Amino acid sequence: MAAAESPSAALRRRDLCSRGIRLAGKMRADVVDLLDAYVEQQGLDASASVAAVEGVPLAAVERWDEQTGTQRLLENLAAYRAFRALLAQMLEEQREQLGEADAGLGRALAAVLLQVSAFVYHLEELLRLESRGIPGEEGDGPPPPPRLSLFEQKLRGLGVLRELAQWAVRSVRDLRQLAKPSAATSAASGTAPGLAESP
Amino acid sequence: MFSRWNWVACGFSLVLSICSPDASGGLVQSCGHIIPESPVLALGSNFTALCILNESCLDFGNIYASQIIWKIKNRVVPKEQYREINRTVSSVTFNDTSSLATPLTCNILADGQIEQNIYGITVTVGLAPEKPKNLSCIVHQVSRFTYVMTCTWNPGRHTFLDTQFRLRYSWPGEIFPDCIPKDVNNSCSVTDIQFFVNTEIWVEATNALGKAESDPLVVDPIDIVKPLSPQNVSVSSGVLPTVLKLSWENWISGPVMTLKFNIRYRIVGDTNWMEVPSEDTASPRTSFSVQGLRPYTEYVFSIRCMKEDGVGYWSDWSEEKTGITTEDQPSKGPPIWRIIDKSHSPACWIVHLIWKALKPFEANGVILQYEVTVRDKSSLSAPVKKYNVTSTNHTLQLREGTYEVTLIARNSVGASPPSVLLIPASNSKAPVKNLRTLPKQDKLWVGWTAPNSYVLKYVIEWCLVSSSSDCIIEWQIALGDVQGIELKGIKPFKCYLITVYPLYADGQGSGQSVKAYLKQDRPSKGPTVQTKKVGKAEAVLTWNHLTVEEQNGFIRNYTILYKTIDGNETVVTVDPSKTEYTLSSLTSDTLYTVRMMASTDSGSRTGPDFTFTTQKFGKGEIEAIVVPVCLAFLLIVLLGVLFCFNKRDLIKKHIWPIVPDPSKSNIAQWSPQVPAKHNFNSKDQMYPEGSFTDVSVVEIEADDKKSFSEQDLKPFDLLKKEKTTSEGHSSGIGGSSCMSSPRQSVSDSDEGETTQNTSSTVQYSTVVLNGYRDQTPVQVFSRSESTQPLLDSEERPEDHAGGADSPAQRQQYFRQNGGQDEINTDRPCFERTKQITHANEGDLVGFVQLQISGQSSQPLGLGMEKNTQEAALSNVLQTCTEGQTVRPETVEENPLSVDEMPKCYLPQTVRQGGYMPQ
Fold it and tell me: Name one GO biological process term (chain A) (predicted).
């Protein structure tokens, strides 16, 4: 696979990784800033513990270094697709709650949402370069969330942003791993089972 | 005419429309329409329109397609472009839409003559949009989190149609809202920018004739960012005097963009920027220490940034910030020089030490003081003298000798290296050669040829030459390896004296001087010329040199221009060192105008005019004329004197005749007898008492008045007047010598004027002795003291002797009548007198004539009676009587002669025993 990879494809891959890394880094920084604004604006405690958000894979994973590249890409893709849906829901809830009263928070949420979408595009492009099919979004999307109270919505939003911040850090590490020349080989050799396992 | 037909057509059309049987849904229904309806056509394309008539109109108005006329505006389209498709449809074709105009109307000729409008359309002609080109985008950072992407493109040609441009951008999986430009068609700004994703950007142009898209621009917006420049820039000085630390804040966070920087700096007051090497600031940072700066110098800093990889745009330069480096010890000693004043005493100098303040980059701080050390090199035992000075000069009194002066500048950090100056006893070393100057723009270049010996450095002195103040010396030191220097601060049109001294290791050479101008101008005034001396053909002109302030340059020559009033101007060029010039070959006694012009390399200026007149005579000419004339005059005078001296007797006889001494006269021996009584009747009546002195008259006759000056004649005129007013005098004196009555003689005086004009009479006194009442009179002699010339006969008794018949006759009266007296002696008194008068007209002018008249005739007669020659006397008396009787008019002449006598000759009372002076 690696041998079959053309120089332009390798260059493209490296470029996508590089951009993905920088995008993930910016996304993390923006999410951190957004978290502060969100906590303050929603009247939450920054130290409040939030249960895991349903439908979002946890960033923390055991034996992370043993994952193949494709596996990393697929996990990232699934996570960010989930974040995209959750952030879109948050943005809609935000508009419903505050209207145009706090346009700044809404713009920040929209910006993060856009970055998540961009990162999803990066991941999909990388998967294409791996000559792997891109899993459909239908099955990957989280189940429709149950109707929650306003406070629960705020807490869920806090949980989404915290997890997104975690995933941004992991994504940087994953893409750096993928950017390494040796990683391409391992990713290629190791992704087959992963892909086979994926739905 | 055409418009009238139009009105008719309109009216007909209205009738057609209203009367149309198919009219439903409205009052007006058209009888036809055009296809296509209001088309938009491409410029240059062909176009065909159809006019379709309604069937109902065919029946009602009997109109068919063959009657259709197409018009563009009011212009009928040529029928060659028509085509009748059927009885209700007519088409028109245009091969080029550029000939089309709005409106395009379909008309019909009703009843063969009346033109009726059926329908009209608006035709729009334009162009399809071109493909937008040169699309480019830049992302401006507006604030910390806000970025605006502005894209510009070339919209292409003008389409003449309403064309919409829109900027579109998308990710592969996401389409973003279009950016529609406002008010422009070549740029649009997008605020919703996401970095790190390749975005496809393109421009779409659309109008009624089509749509065009630009080539897509695929770019990650992060690669086209122009970031904001760093903010809060600050400058701080460090420990080292050559380092300043620059700190700032970045607007862009690291996750978004890592930056590299560009730092520039300059010294305050300088315009040239220096830059920190870019490789030193190619990594992200928020501070940088700039090294290699000058101590105690104020610098200005500015910084900019861009994405670290160099993809994108540099930010603008940040605001400028200043900082000052710390002090350091002076880097060099001050340049020092001296001025030695030996005027007071050759053995004791007054030495003015002068030095220049160090330049800021040399002083490296604030100079607190200067330390001057003077060591007498001629005496090792002499103590070293030290002075602390805060100014840049110091004056010493030194004995003549050789000294070493050391100067140190000190600031708060330390002292400078010493500057050493040798003051020798004399400037005995070799001077520079070939000293010259050359203006270079606003600087004066001074060049020289170095001496053969090694020169440590040169001292260049210069000062502004002034006639009113002393030369204030400025100076500069040049290194020994240069042979020229540019002097700054030199004013144009001013004379500078420049002196160059070579300084050797063991002394100094003598100075070489040159005068120079940075720029020359013509003199500010011309010389004032005047004459020192003016001669007949030459004039010496003098003038004063212009002052150095007036010269404005080197005076190359003077030009003298002189001319006469109507003559050509003559030009003479004079050496500028002269102040005097002699003009020669001038015309005598001529007015000259002279002026003088001073010339520099840049022009000339003429002074005021001066006029002078050359002399008529040259030097010595007057003397040459006067002296000979005087000598000749003297010679003539001398000759005249000699001549007079030789002829003195003759002259004396004419001018100062000898008056005969009466005492020596023969009458002295004559004793008069008692005179005949009957002759003195009248006399007795006038002078009844005592003796009476008779009056004799000397008559001077002249030929005409021309022989006398008017002055001489005045007395005669005066006498005439007196005679008319004082009859008594004349009657008493004159009387007619021929016994005429006194009245007659007076009254006739005017009539005898003609006679008076040719003769004059001067009265001499005659002594007449009368006895009183028949008594024998005392013999008295009366003598005239008059200086008037007497009768010639008296002066020359020999003539009388020759001419008279007897000596007794000569004693009767004194008479001077030349030679004619002798002739006329025997003639009657009247005739003789007349003859004398005529004779004197020629050659006896001025001579006096003694005439006996009036009362004097009686003594004369008495005398003659007493004379022994009575017969002769009686003859005379008879003749006189006869003459009076026969020719009375001639007698009247005698009183006239008496009247003309000057007053001084008026008769006076005779004193006894003396003469009667006159």
Answer: positive regulation of axon regeneration
